[in-house]
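Reviewer 2 asked us to include a model.

Predict the structure of this chain.
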Amino acid sequence: MIDAIRNAFRIPDLRKRILFTLGIIALYRVGAHIPVPGVDPAAMKDLVSGADSTLGLLNLFAGGALENFAIFALGIMPYITSTIIMQLLQAVIPTLERWSKEGEAGQRKITQTARYMTLGIALMESIGLLTVFQAAPPTGLGVDFDLLTEIVIIISLISGTAAIMWMGELITQRGIGNGMSLLIFSSIVSRFPQTVIASFRVHPWFMLLVLVISLLVVAAVVFMEGGQRRIPVQYAKRVVGRRVYGGVGTYIPLKVNGANVIPIIFASSVLLFPTTIARFFTNVAWLQKAAEWLSSGWSYIVLFAGLIIFFAYFYTALVFNPIETADNLRKNGGFIPGVRPGNPTAQYITNVLNRITLPGAVFLALIAVVPQAIFQQTGDQLVAAFGGTSILIMVGVALETMRQLESQLQMRHYDGFFK
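Predicted model (structure tokens):
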């Protein structure tokens, strides 16, 4: 690995890309510590540190920017949310589906629409944060902002979100790896030293046990990320002029965890929605009880696990179309040995996909809910901040970035990370 990193820095183009990526990440971390006007950062830190899982999760993905009420307090989540929404809408809106099939030109239209949607989501979230923080203690700061201050705060948060979106796209275009994923990775990693030190001061032996378990979870995540079911495909020979095409064998790779961390994000959003609504209607007793029931205790853990499994199947069905895959195989003269072309092939792929999605969905549910259950029993912040979801994101981003760097090294005839 050290030799691979040394080889990467020997290549001028790769060296520029790596340094550019690190520079943008450093700029992103600086923005996470610049507070918006009119807010007391010390009071915000006390509020977020003692808040429920909603603000704690947002603060984790924002890299601590929320507790500072910085210009990057909303983090990258508005853009990720809009991207997921656009991906879901492609299955129900014909115009978006047509754009997705138009190649690079259509993708630019989808990306531009996602950008505008990001700004709209950032506007709603900034107004929501202001409403929450103006509430009376202990759920808010109890500060009554004047109209001009509110406008300045909203504009600052929206501008910060637009800047994050721009920096992430710059990394994707001119750096190494996926920019948005790397920004989330840096946000989670930046909280690690502070949380480890705080946990070590409270109970050091339990902290060491958590770190050992985390290493085992990392190994399990790496194993599951690389797991796939390969469906063999054979292509018939075709004679075009004097050339012979086909007659070769390949496979369709179906990942065990094809949905990655998306089901966890969906399930969290569904369960956090009643809690968010309850903050606006504090005088409705039944809504407060429902929000409490859905945000804590074993009821939350059971529902969380069930929703993760449901959304794993739901998202996999959205992004992978067995009927379209079978139709493309038939048009190109491909077939699965022992399976008739057409509908039987689509049904066979569907059955295989349903079987391999189950262990991936159960794995995601365990990764997400086990740390929550441990936190309810121990109250350890290290478990809460760096549970399975954080590890899943960090390992996935690290592996994807290493693969991209590996491909760049192999193109230039250097040994990479994976030998």
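Strands lie at 228-235, 238-240, 243-245, 249-255, 334-335. The mean pLDDT is 78. We have added this to the supplementary material.
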